[in-house]
Write a structure and sequence with these properties.
The protein has helices at residues 2-22, 40-43, 81-91, 97-101, 135-146, 198-209, 271-283, 290-294, 319-324, 337-362, 364-372, 391-412, 422-430; strands at residues 31-32, 35-36, 55-64, 109-110, 119-130, 151-158, 171-179, 213-216, 232-240, 244-248, 253-264, 311-317, 469-470, 473-474, 493-496, 500-503. With 527 residues, the protein is α+β, with helices and mostly antiparallel strands. It has three domains: 55-158, Alpha-Beta Plaits, CATH 3.30.70; 171-372, 2-Layer Sandwich (Alpha-Beta Plaits), CATH 3.30.70; 391-503, no CATH class. A hairpin with a 4-residue loop joins strand 10 and strand 11. The longest helix is centred in the middle third of the chain and has 26 residues, at 337-362. 29% of the residues are buried.
Length: 527
């Protein structure tokens, strides 16, 4: 038994020796000189060795004027900041065609998504690009030659491989620039000659301080409910700066502007514009100060939204990131004096100056103020609480009562009405009364009383009877409320203590610069 087992072992070893001897002349597959070779498909491509490109994460600092764009983030079919920037990088060969269509392939992110027409002066973008040492100078110049004039790349820096501009950002600072006449009181003129008082600035700062801290801002955005935890935002600071003058070359006058600056951890859609709009409404006495606190509660409130023209992303803060990587990477909050000097230059020429000129040309704030007077803060139609009565709403109610009473009185005396002819006008003057009646050929609806106290205009007369306000001498005219003034876009009536309802704007079709006797509610024009 043992003998047969030994014979089998010897036979197996003999066969193995024969196989080894047959392959002794052939090299081991994939091994030459002790090194393992790669397969042909991996080692070569069309006869050339494949080269692996080293990549690194970069942070880009850029500024842009947003009035010609539909926000920062890419939107198909609309011009955006990211669309222009990524297209320029593709033309330079920094990214491939596939990366252009899918920016996530080269890890493109932004610190803040600005809305339509909103500008930024220190926006930060993060991306993974082929490693180069000259991005900060040569790369910036190459990009700016391909970008539109209203988008400027300021500088670029190496960042950590895990850098994310939005998630690593600990705070954001925005500013809102607007003409000071937006804060004019009802008794003050709302025009270019307005100059804000220190007391008003103190009041604005007090109102802005109400927003500091953590609050539920669901009333300051859209399509969110009170129980949505994402509506809670933390405001670090909110302040009003000092006023400054900017010369209007067209009208050859100086207009006063002011800047509001807010710093917070993050903001939701429309939040800043609605905060500014609410403060303006309170300062102009169109709403109570206590109403601001009510907007943080569960009841739905329609908070007015200020125009987007003056909103500007000033800075994104990376304080924690800068402290953590101070020894290995340059800071991203403060880019140094040389870069900051360039930022200030671009900010004024590209953004601030354009904001001021656009405001003077298009009067966006002035038009918004006209609509603000009619704004209904009560968004819930089933709410039992009545909206706040302002001086204008009370004036309209008073005027409607006067118009109704006058109409009833006119019907009674309609039979004894003389015609609006020169003879009737002369006869009225001979009675010892002063009647400024236009000769339009229509019938006067109410004859002059015996005591000479009442004179009404013809029903279809196109020439308005002129009234004057000189000191306390106020002439009150009764009659129906006409359509809104097309120049100031506000109602015609107001209330003067002790005088009742008076008509503020005498002509519904007056043009800008036209001289007329009564000031309109916005006090845009004077006699």
């Amino acid at each position: 038994m043992l003998k047969r087992l030994l014979q089998r072992v010897v036979a197996s070893m003999t066969k193995l020796a024969e196989v080894v001897e047959q392959k002794s002349d052939a090299p081991l597959h994939g091994v030459q000189s002790g090194r393992v070779e790669k397969r042909h498909s991996e080692s070569q491509s069309d006869g050339q060795a494949k080269v692996r490109i080293k990549k690194a994460k970069y942070a880009m600092l850029l500024a842009y004027q947003g009035k010609n764009y539909f926000g920062m983030q890419i939107q198909k079919g609309h011009p955006t900041i990211e669309g222009e920037l990524i297209s320029a990088m593709h033309k330079l060969g920094w990214i491939t065609e596939q990366m252009k269509e899918q920016p996530s392939l080269f890890h493109f992110q932004r610190a803040a998504r600005t809305d339509r027409a909103v500008s930024a002066v220190r926006q930060i973008c993060g991306m993974e690009l082929p490693q180069r040492d000259d991005y900060a100078i040569i790369g910036v110049n190459e990009l700016n030659t391909l970008l539109p004039e209203d988008i400027r790349v300021i500088s670029m820096r190496r960042a950590t491989n895990l850098f994310h501009p939005q998630k690593k950002c600990c705070a954001r600072t925005y500013s809102y620039t607007l003409p000071t006449f937006a804060f004019a009181k009802p008794t003050e003129l709302t025009n270019a000659a307005f100059r804000i008082k220190k007391e008003t600035i103190d009041e604005i700062n007090h109102l802005l301080s109400i927003y500091k801290g953590t609050h539920n801002f669901f009333n300051y955005t859209s399509k969110r409910e009170f129980d949505d935890r994402s509506c809670f935002r933390y405001i670090l600071s909110f302040e009003c700066g000092e006023p400054f003058l900017f010369h209007d070359d067209v009208r050859n006058e100086d207009v006063e502007f002011i800047q509001l600056t807010v710093k917070g951890q993050s903001f939701i859609l429309h939040q800043i514009r609605k905060m500014v709009g609410m403060v303006i409404a309170v300062v102009r006495e169109l709403q109570y100060k206590s109403y601001i606190q009510r907007t943080f509660e569960s009841d739905r409130v329609d908070v007015p939204k200020a125009p987007g023209l003056g909103l500007l992303l000033e800075r994104v803060h990376y304080d924690v990131y800068d402290r953590k990587h101070a020894k290995t990477h340059e800071p991203l909050t403060d880019w140094g004096p040389e870069v900051e000097a360039r930022v200030k230059e671009v900010k004024f020429e590209l953004i601030t100056k354009e904001i001021l000129i656009s405001e003077l040309r298009h009067q966006s704030m002035l038009q918004w103020l006209a609509d603000l007077v009619r704004h209904d803060f009560c968004a819930d139609p089933e709410a039992e609480e009545l909206p706040k009565q302002t001086f204008l709403t009370m004036a309209v109610a008073k005027a409607e009562e006067a118009a109704k009473a006058a109409a009833e009185k006119m019907e009674v005396k309609e039979e004894n009405v003389p015609s609006c002819e020169d003879g009737a006008k002369q006869e009225a003057l001979e009675d010892g009364t002063t009647a400024n009646v236009s000769s339009c050929g229509d019938t006067i609806k109410k004859e002059i009383q015996e005591d000479g106290t009442t004179v009404d205009i013809p029903p279809a007369c196109t020439d308005a009877i002129k009234k004057e306000i000189q000191g306390d001498n106020v002439t009150v005219q009764s009659g129906q409320i006409t359509e809104h003034c097309r120049a100031c876009m506000l109602g015609m009536w107001s209330v003067i203590p002790g005088k009742g309802a008076i008509k503020l704007c005498e002509w519904s079709t007056h043009s800008i610069g036209q001289s007329y006797q009564l000031a309109c509610p916005l006090r845009l024009f004077q006699k």
